[in-house]
Design goal:
This protein is of the alpha/beta class. The protein folds into two domains: about 35 residues, no CATH class; about 220 residues, 2-enoyl-CoA Hydratase, Chain A, domain 1 (Alpha-Beta Complex), CATH 3.90.226.10. Helix content is about 35%, strand content about 20%. It has ten helices and ten strands. Strands 3, 4, 5, 6, 7, 8, 9 and 10 form an eight-stranded mixed beta sheet that branches. It has a two-stranded antiparallel ribbon with strand order 1-2. A hairpin with a 6-residue loop joins strand 1 and strand 2. Helix 5 packs parallel to helix 6. The radius of gyration is 20 Å and the shape is globular. The structure holds zinc ion. Zinc ion binds next to loops.
Length: about 280
């Protein structure tokens, strides 16, 4: 009996690839080829420049903890809610079981889910903050991510401090179905409560910020800023074109287009982000 169940377990495990197919990692080796201009840059130089191309200014993805290193006062970050771990409420399976996908992503990224949060300081101003980690399942928002975002806002409410959220996400996590979509309402309600303390909520949209996140707290900032050329929107351009049967204008849904049309407040290059955030916080906090 015991042998039978053990063997069965092993068989089912054997059908799941032990390691997920490694995503093509840019910058592997010592050179990095820029997606913007094709320039080949020494990887150490690329990283020293916070993954911004020194030749054309293209902003490549920046891992979440590196972003905190760049923006926060040294040694000020204290991570909170790090132990929140996603469950699989729908026992969801597509090409792979959701719980296996979570496990393998945890192994490759070292993250429990697609959001890292806590408290820190920028320019001496204490803030409650969080950032999406796009490297974790495309920065998708499931119930853990939504809960962590709501806690970032609630913590800002309790401590009467500003709140800053960096979004980089494909939107709601399909594997959690309606539980993901509920996070849009939950985070928006938390923001509504936060309004009472009259402290600023700054939303920073990174490339890309789409789907349910763009349609909820990411666009509800008192100040909404974006990195250059970030893709920001609800549905992608191809879906919109097919729905309205019209060709979209060039640059549609990029930060520059959105700024021109009054949808965001500013575009701030990554290397100027810390100073600009410090300035906004000192004016509004
Ligand atoms: Zn470049």
């Amino acid at each position: 009996m015991a042998w039978f169940s053990k063997e069965k377990k092993l068989t089912s495990k054997a059908t799941t690839p032990a390691t997920p197919p490694a995503p093509a990692k840019k910058g592997e080796g010592i050179w990095n080829k820029c997606d913007g201009c094709g320039e080949v840059v020494y990887k150490a130089e690329w990283e020293r420049n916070w993954n911004v191309c020194p030749a054309c200014g293209h902003h490549d993805m920046l891992p979440v903890r590196r972003r905190f290193d760049l923006l926060l006062d040294p040694g000020s970050f204290e991570e909170l809610d790090a132990d929140l771990t996603p469950q699989d409420p729908l026992a969801f399976t597509d090409a792979k079981r959701y719980r296996d996908r979570l496990r393998s992503t945890y192994r490759t990224t070292g993250l429990r889910d697609a959001f890292v949060s806590g408290v820190g300081a920028i320019g001496g101003q204490a803030i409650s903050l969080g950032s999406f980690a796009f490297e974790f399942m495309g920065g998708s928002m499931g119930s853990v991510v939504g809960e962590k975002v709501a806690r970032v806002i609630d913590r800002a409410y309790e401590r009467r401090i500003p709140c800053v959220v960096f979004s980089s996400t494909g939107g709601a996590r399909m594997q959690e179905g309606i539980f993901s979509l509920m996070q849009m309402a939950k985070t928006s309600a938390a923001l509504h409560r936060f309004r009472a303390v009259r402290k600023p909520y700054v939303s920073v949209m990174l490339h890309p910020t789409t789907g349910g996140v763009a349609a909820s707290f990411a666009w509800l900032g008192d100040v909404v800023i974006a990195e250059p050329k970030a893709l920001i929107g609800f549905a992608g351009p191809r879906v919109i074109e097919q729905t309205i049967r019209e060709k979209l204008p060039p640059g549609f849904q990029r930060s520059e287009f959105l700024l021109e049309h009054g949808m965001i407040d500013a575009i701030v290059p990554r290397l100027e982000m810390r100073d600009r955030l410090a300035q906004i916080l000192s004016l509004l906090a």
